Amino acid sequence: MFVDYIDTPLGCVEFKASDKGITQVIFSGEIKTHVIASDITTECKKQLHEYFAKARKEFDLPLDPKGTDFQKSVWYCLSNIPYGEVVTYLDIAKMVNKPKGSQAVGGANGRNPISLIVPCHRVIGSNGSLTGYAGGIERKLWLLSHEGFEVKPSKESQQLDIQNVIHSRQAKTEFLA
């Protein structure tokens, strides 16, 4: 397993790869281990730098996510959401032929091991609300704004502060190797 890190405006991001592709991209907080780089992690680091510099809108990396067939079908749909656009959980549910499966889609979305590259932050509630995000709703708001998506001001979004999560590890990572 290969591992590397990048410091971003949203805190430290850890990414891991197998010989086949990227297996994990998460907000790691302040936890870092020894870097073991590969060609894949080196290219991932380059592309993430470009994304945060607004010089990249699509990632071109081999992916090797671990999950169920259903989760992988949801993550595939997420990978096809264009930069700066959003879809709803219901939209994804329909794409995977589970039109009543919005909650299941939300569960798969929340367990996406490859944040940013598989853009789970681009999924919102049917009413336009930001809903949850394993990296913290503050990060989701920042990412959508970074991509040029205009988030409707709300009492909730006006109270968010990226400093609340910048040093924290994202939630729902206990299942990752």
Report on the structure:
The protein is of the alpha+beta class and 177 residues long. The protein has a domain at 69-164: Winged helix-like DNA-binding domain superfamily/Winged helix DNA-binding domain (Arc Repressor Mutant, subunit A, Orthogonal Bundle). It has 6 helices and 5 strands, in the order βββααβααβαα. It has helices at residues 39-52, 69-79, 89-95, 102-110, 137-146, 155-158, and strands spanning 2-8, 11-17, 22-27, 87-88, 123-124. The strands form 2 sheets. Strands 1-2-3 form a 3-stranded antiparallel sheet, with helices on one face. It has a two-stranded parallel ribbon with strand order 4-5. A hairpin with a 2-residue loop joins strand 1 and strand 2 (11-17). Helix 3 crosses helix 4 (102-110). The longest helix is centred in the first third of the chain and has 14 residues, at 39-52. It is globular and about 45 Å long.
Short description:
With 177 residues, the chain is α+β, with helices and mostly antiparallel strands. Helices cover 31% and strands 14% of the residues.
Quantity of strands, as a count: 5
Strand order of the largest sheet: 1-2-3
Main sheet summary:
3 strands, antiparallel
Task: Tell me the number of helical segments per DSSP (H or I, 4 or more residues long).
Answer: 6
What is the CATH architecture annotation of the domain at 69-164?
Orthogonal Bundle
Average the pLDDT over all residues and give the rounded result: 88
Strand content: 5-15%
Low-confidence stretches: none
Q: Oligomeric form of this entry?
A: single chain
Estimated helix fraction: 25-40%
Q: SS-based structural class?
A: alpha+beta
The ordered string of helix (H) and strand (E) elements is EEEHHEHHEHH
Integer-rounded radius of gyration: 15 Å
CATH class of the domain at 69-164: Mainly Alpha
Shape annotation: globular
Task: Quote the distance from N terminus to C terminus.
Answer: 10 Å
The CATH superfamily of the domain at 69-164 is Winged helix-like DNA-binding domain superfamily/Winged helix DNA-binding domain
